[in-house]
Amino acid sequence: YRDKARFNFHGYVGRDPLCLANLTPGQRDPYPFYERIRARGPVSRSAAGVWASADYDVVRQVLRSRAMSSAPPEGQQGADLSFLEMDPPDHTRLRRFALPSFSPRNLSSMDARITAALNRLLDDLPTDEPFDLVSRVGAPMPITVISDLLGVPDADADAFARYGSTFGSALGGVRSLAHARRLVEARTALGRIFEQLFELKRREPGDDLITRAAEAGPEVIRPDEMAPLLTLLLIAGFETTVNLIGNAVLALLEHPEQWELLVADPDRAGAVVEETLRYDSPVQRTGRRVVEPVTIGGHDFVADDFVVVCVAGANRDPSVYPEPARFDITRTDPQEHLAFSGGIHYCVGAPLARLEATIALRTLAQRFPHLRRAGALTRRPGSLIRGLQSFPVTVAPVV
Ligand code: HEM
After folding, report:
1. Does the global pTM surpass 0.90?
2. Among protein residues, the one whose CA lies closest to atom 39 of ligand 1
3. Domains and CATH numbers, the chain
């Protein structure tokens, strides 16, 4: 059983630890699955033989436990996603390096730029025929923002976006040999772009993360740590916020009375973002490896156990959220959802994701009160990241 768990750290490569991927597309509603896991107890054995939990308290404790590690086992390859897969002290050092880019000061300076970038995208939308919300709004906006934050010049932005998307497509599993080959190519090409960018920023420093990396000494970040760090930020920036925006608009349009609440008061956009993170989390789960014996939720974990942590299931735990399957932007439940994880790996980009999605939803409601679905949507493959691949909508007034 442990062999099956091996590998799939953060679900990035290899098999799906919960066997969720085996669900056919028509069944792709994972929430009944989490209910079944929770019904078996706070901690239970998954179909693939690893431990799993969808219980809010257990998930929260596992994420905060010092007896749990995010690093792949000794001698095994992870997904090369920098400090996401490290333990202290390396985790602390690299996280500290990344943090200033997401500080309130830095983000407040980005607010106007994000709004302007979004308005440019919205200006280009057709007002009299359907369009795809994902490729026209949800995806390009976070790509522009993360490129800006890292300091990628406009000339490189397209290549950067293309390789970044190829990389992101592997979240949740590599589908074929050809897919694996494309990944290796993307990794090599990205490495080359990063090298050129470091040289450029040494000559022409800017107010961005790549400049800080180029100027930092090896005691802050070693040369071999730079590409994985930038790749992590790239993937995290590309592949998550797009789904938050898509999942939010879908939930709102499936619950028209909630959309009307937002249209009547666009300042509710922040509440929509929080409720979407709870109700339909873009990152559905993570994983931890037990490094020393610990008892959580009445279960005795031993070293080398692997725990699949279903944050999206915990966010639907009825003991914390009454009527958890109800999408309700007026909720006032005191407990914060676990969509951004918890403990030392709590999402570094959470303030940025919140800012981008809030601006997007507020502006959509202000500019397009008639927004509605205009056809069948498609979902992205895989069960780690939950989001839409295409989402046809129209903004034309109803006649
Ligand atoms: C970590 C979710 C957006 C950067 C995480 C983790 C989750 C998460 C669940 C922790 C995984 C674990 O504990 O094993 C999300 C969601 C997002 C989002 C749902 C959007 C809706 C972003 C953005 C960025 C970002 C926009 C930055 C560009 C990171 C980084 C980590 C992380 C660097 C690693 C933190 C650490 O290990 O200390 N994110 N994320 N995320 N996220 Fe996000």
Report:
1. yes
2. 347
3. 2-71+80-137+241-393 (1.10.630.10)
